[in-house]
Amino acid sequence: MAAEQTFIMIKPDGVQRGLIGEVISRFEKKGFYLKAMKLQNVEKSFAEQHYADLSSKPFFGGLVEYIVSGPVVAMVWEGKSVVATGRKIIGATNPLASEPGTIRGDFAVDIGRNVIHGSDSVENARKEIALWFPEGLAEWSSSQHCWVYE
Ligand code: DAT
Ligand code: MG
């Protein structure tokens, strides 16, 4: 069975605030593997597609404006239970409810500036990875794998 993968995006506020290294470091040190990464500005229509499930929400317009307001860092991370564990590393959607020690708990205040996105299910991760990385992922395996995984 292929290893689990998740889609992680550092939002424009995270990029502007110099949190790229901090976010990467937390996933890397945990024992997950970076399989793809790019810094890019996104078109409005692309942001709308990424958040299509939320299109009926009153905050949808503001959310899309925020995502297109500057470059984002799109990534794919791989590892055991990386979808659910990635959500734990990120913390609750509203940063005021995120536990200290999580990315949002440590670095964010407002829900509309919550620094980072992470897929919420394996199925949505698959869809988001296909949307953001149609070119495919890097093929590699870490020489430290046996020191992290039994
Ligand atoms: P998450 O990003 O934790 O998966 P989500 O998918 O429910 O949360 O919503 C996507 C983003 O939309 C979220 O990171 C911030 C914004 N958002 C969610 N609920 C909101 C609300 N009630 N008011 C304003 N923005 C909201
Ligand atoms: Mg979500």
From TrEMBL:
* A Pfam family per the record: NDK
Q: Cite the binding residues for ATP.
A: 11, 59, 87, 93, 104, 114
Q: Which residues are annotated as active site? A: 117 (pros-phosphohistidine intermediate)
The EC number on file is: 2.7.4.6
Cofactor dependence: Mg(2+)
Note the PROSITE patterns from the entry: NDPK, NDPK_LIKE
Q: Name one GO biological process term.
A: UTP biosynthetic process
Q: Could you tell me the keywords of this UniProt record?
A: ATP-binding, Kinase, Nucleotide-binding, Transferase
Q: What InterPro entries does the database record attribute to this sequence?
A: NDK-like_dom, NDK-like_dom_sf, Nucleoside_diP_kinase, Nucleoside_diP_kinase_AS
Which reaction is catalysed here? a ribonucleoside 5'-diphosphate + ATP = a ribonucleoside 5'-triphosphate + ADP; a 2'-deoxyribonucleoside 5'-diphosphate + ATP = a 2'-deoxyribonucleoside 5'-triphosphate + ADP
Q: Is the keyword ATP-binding assigned to this protein?
A: yes
Q: GO terms for molecular function, please?
A: ATP binding; nucleoside diphosphate kinase activity
Question: Domain named Nucleoside diphosphate kinase-like: which ranges?
Answer: 3-139
Describe the family membership recorded for this protein in Swiss-Prot or TrEMBL. Answer: Belongs to the NDK family.
Task: Give the matching NCBIfam families.
Answer: PRK00668.1
Role played: Major role in the synthesis of nucleoside triphosphates other than ATP. The ATP gamma phosphate is transferred to the NDP beta phosphate via a ping-pong mechanism, using a phosphorylated active-site intermediate. This NDK is microtubule-associated.
> In its UniProt entry, what is this protein called?
Nucleoside diphosphate kinase
**What lineage is this protein's organism placed in?**
Eukaryota, Viridiplantae, Streptophyta, Embryophyta, Tracheophyta
